[in-house]
Amino acid sequence: MSEIPALDDAAALWSCPPEERAGRPLLILLHGYGSHEGDLFRLVPFLPPEFVVAAVRAPLSPPFPAPGWSWFPIEGVADAASTAAADASAAVTAAAESLRAWLGRTTDPATAVGLLGFSQGGAVALQALRLAPERFSFVVNLAGFVVPGELPTDAALAELRPPVFWGRGARDEVIPPGRIAHTTEWLPRHVDLSGRVYPGLTHSVSEEELADVRAFLEKRLGDLSG
Asked: Where's the Phospholipase/carboxylesterase/thioesterase domain (predicted)?
């Protein structure tokens, strides 16, 4: 399996201090390629305040001259049949395991946890859900994708069918079409899927999509409190 370093605990941004987190659900934000933990953290004012929000920093530095951080190398992402693609899938799994290790270090095991990831962060969020479907309550996948390959826990995921919101732009030219096709086929067989394709939207997030995400998160709060 690909080597992915441990996440930097000190780099995580939290919406509140430790003494205000007990008994509240946690929403973890996972940024995209070449970005950083502060990017999605700017969404906190638009998210339901009942959540404790933590934005984590991806563990890898992209090749020069790309800025920021990445969850896994991008080589092989576009080719679903190559050896590089298998290596890329293994790297996504390793990144998801690194995220789970960070969660184990920082959060009470009884805390309800949801994931919100953009692009690469969305792929890692979905992979973490696949690896531990009993640990994560839901996923918000923005402009992300499911990596190919089977995991031993996929059957358990299909039985639990946790809620997943998938939002993407109709004009997104970053995520390869093959990855979109695979995700479109795979997700409905394993999760309770909702979401939208936004006309005119590129590889980004719009105000309309944010409103849909907030509505999805408010429904999840209702599920958790019920």
From this structure: 22-219
Tokens matching residue 169: 């732009």
Q: Quick one: which H or E segment has residue 225?
A: helix 207-225
Q: Which residues pair with 70 in a beta bridge?
A: 60
> What per-residue string of b and e applies to 22-42 under the rule 16 or more CB within 10 Å gives b?
eebbbbbbbbbbbbbbebbbe
The closest of 120, 118, 33 to 68, measured between CA atoms, is 33
Mean pLDDT lowest for which of 84-98, 102-116, 143-157, 165-179? 84-98
Instruction: Name the phi and psi angles at 121, rounded to 5.
Output: -60, -35
Distance CA 134, CA 176 (A): 30
**Is residue 2, in this structure, part of any structural domain at all?**
no
Please tell me whether the overall predicted TM-score, pTM, comes out greater than 0.85 for this model.
yes
Task: Phi first, then psi: give them for residue 165, nearest 5 degrees.
Answer: -105, 125
For the chain, the domain total comes to: 1
